[in-house]
Design brief:
The protein is an alpha/beta fold. It contains 15 helices and 18 strands.
């Protein structure tokens, strides 16, 4: 089956959030199952792409000039990099002040037109769209192609002035939502199948609380709205082979995790006290519950724990993190920014991984933590609820700890219970083992996508 996979992010070329990692993971797994997958991606940075073949693209005048570079990337595989007006930027979505580029609607409208043109040129059996950045593509297809739309985060919908819809050659009415245009709403109406990135999230987005205004539209899709949980790349998130882990380890031999803890303590300048280490690697945004994590930090001494946070994002949250480190030098440590090696060291050296999200379509970090033998402490939302079983609620199946609600009291309670479990070596070992032996790979999700494609392939 030939699949055109359209996305605004693809690891390792560009990763802002989970979209880039998830896109790379599912494509790798689909290719391993024998599918021909062409990835189409905006050419944001004019990447070095040896031996690429450049061709012009015939797009509407407002989207011209347009071109595509075809080739095979050493890590990304078969790739089509699209250049349309204003698509090249120093960052994909926002400027240095964190504000969206003024041209974003037109950038991704033109990109969607290019996606449709490539789908026809490559004779794709299935067009797989991801999030709002690709959602205008069905409007540029005179003859529809079997289409699946994956919603990675419903909060971002591509709202725009309704006048923009005059540029669409067809299906304009489908892209109206209220008095405005809405890219994602149009694709939800037009796609053959709509996929949420976890089963729980597929339910949540049909509710007023989780639907961000699109709940009725989504619930109206009935059985054509499905949930397929994301996976993780088990070649990357494997402490037995990962180069950033000081000493390799596995579920059968955990000594290397002790070494990873020692290395992490040395990095932050702390002496060993045996207090459990609570770690967190996250974007500093309201959705991720960073404020709940920082509020919980003041309880670390009472819990008998210490906290290490790595992340970047909203300035006031970063300022709060630096303040907490200054006020609690032996209990709290904060790094403003992102560091690949350090992130792996936190996953490996931590005892508990905190993820107090207010909503979480799937989440990858909780699975990455479990693969590294670090116990997740999460809220009961989206993919977190689908992957983490509270060890106090189901002692024989538990692989972590769950806060029932996203508030300070529930998060601190879950941390308290997790810290208590960490101090019981036998119990901790049993909980850790369940997380480490579970299959968090992309194999099963890829098989589910294959079966979904087969239901819509014409």
């Amino acid at each position: 089956m030939r699949i055109l996979f359209a996305t605004a992010e693809f690891k390792p070329l560009v990763t802002v959030g989970g979209l880039g990692e998830a896109s790379a993971g599912i494509v790798k797994a689909l290719r391993a199952q024998g599918h021909h997958v062409d990835v189409v991606l905006p050419d944001y940075y004019a990447w070095d792409f040896p031996n690429a073949e450049t061709k012009p693209l015939a797009l509407p005048h407002w989207a011209a000039p347009a071109s595509v570079r075809y080739g095979t990337h050493a890590q990304a595989g078969s790739l089509a990099l699209v250049d349309v007006p204003h698509i090249a930027k120093p960052a994909p979505y926002v400027d240095s002040d964190g504000l969206g580029w003024q041209e974003n609607t037109m950038r991704f409208l033109a990109f969607s037109a290019a996606v449709a043109a490539l789908a026809k040129e490559l004779k794709a059996d299935v067009l797989h769209l991801n999030d709002w950045h690709t959602s205008f593509a069905p409007a540029f297809l005179a003859e529809p192609i079997p289409t699946a739309l994956t919603i990675h985060n419903l909060a971002y919908q591509g709202q725009c002035d309704s006048a923009v819809l005059d540029l669409l050659p067809s299906h304009q009415a489908n892209y109206f939502f209220g008095e405005s245009g809405n890219a994602l709403a149009g694709a939800i109406r037009l796609a053959d199948k709509v996929v949420a990135v976890s089963g729980r999230y597929a339910q949540e987005i049909t509710t007023e609380a989780g639907g961000f205004g699109l709940q009725r539209l989504l619930s109206g899709r009935g059985d054509d709205l499905v949930g397929i949980r994301n996976g993780i790349d088990i070649d990357v998130w494997n402490p037995a082979t990962q180069k950033h882990v000081p000493v390799s380890y596995s579920v059968d031999s955990m000594d290397g995790k002790t070494e990873a803890r020692a290395a992490l303590l040395s990095h932050v300048g702390w002496e060993e006290t045996k207090d459990p280490l609570i770690v967190m690697v996250s974007r500093l945004v309201h959705q991720k519950g960073i404020d709940l994590a920082f509020s919980a930090a003041k309880f670390c001494e009472g819990l008998g724990a210490r906290m290490i946070v790595l992340g970047s994002g909203e300035r006031h949250l970063a300022d709060w993190g630096r303040h907490l480190q200054k006020e609690n030098p032996g209990r709290f440590w904060f790094h403003d920014g992102y560091d690949v090696a350090l992130s792996h060291q936190l996953f490996a050296g931590g005892d508990l991984y905190l993820m107090p999200s207010r909503f979480e379509p799937c989440g990858l970090a909780q699975m990455q933590a479990m693969a590294y033998g670090t116990l997740p402490v999460v809220t009961a939302v989206g993919g977190l609820a689908d992957t983490v079983i509270d060890a106090d609620v189901q002692p024989r199946k538990g692989n972590g700890f769950v806060a029932g609600t996203a508030d300070e009291a529930s998060v601190v309670d879950a941390l308290h219970r997790a810290v208590r479990a960490c101090k019981n070596a036998r119990r901790r070992r049993a909980i850790v083992k369940r997380g480490m032996v579970a299959d968090w790979s992309w194999d099963n999700p890829a098989q589910q996508f294959t079966e979904l494609y087969e239901t819509i392939e014409r």
